[in-house]
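Title: Prediction job returns without error message
Component: structure pipeline
Severity: low
Priority: P3
Assignee: unassigned

Description:
Job completed but the reporter wants confirmation the result is attached to the right record. Sequence as submitted:
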Amino acid sequence: MPMMPFHIEPLPLLLRALLLSVAIVAAIYDWRFRRIPNWLCVAGLLAGFSAQIYLQGARGLLAAGEGFGVALLIYLPLYLLRGMGAGDVKLMAALGSIAGPMSWFVLFMVTAVLGGVVGVMLSLTYGRLYSTLWNVGQIVKELAMFRAPYKNQPQVDLHHPGALRTPHGVIIAVTAILLAMAHLL
């Protein structure tokens, strides 16, 4: 049997329940109001740190801190480049504190792929596949020149009136549910 480059243990039931609870509530809010409330992110963050410490002591504190940090490291630049909302950043940071760095990274990768699929489907639905692909090319070009894409290409700004937006909290929750059902979380 070939060796996997790394192995991730499924999360304990308490952490899985917390992660799913926070993600599902966030999805409901994001779907209905197109925002994720701060109280939920703070509660998720505190619950994540508390549960990790309860389960693993100092090792849990480290896992929660690393998960939180990795999530911010990846999502904060997306927010600063105006490609992600602040609620999404705070939600993923809270989920990182619950899941720890490795499980959170799996959640992030699957969320990114699922988000890409949903984005392509949405752009096809609205007949905007070509313009969406062109915008992706512009984003890559601007980033390669170390420039914020929204400055020269305002249509790629999340807040642009013509932007196609998806409630990212819903995609995160669907991913969390799928991963939990597959015992990958």
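Comment from assignee: result matches the submitted record. The chain has a mean pLDDT of 91.
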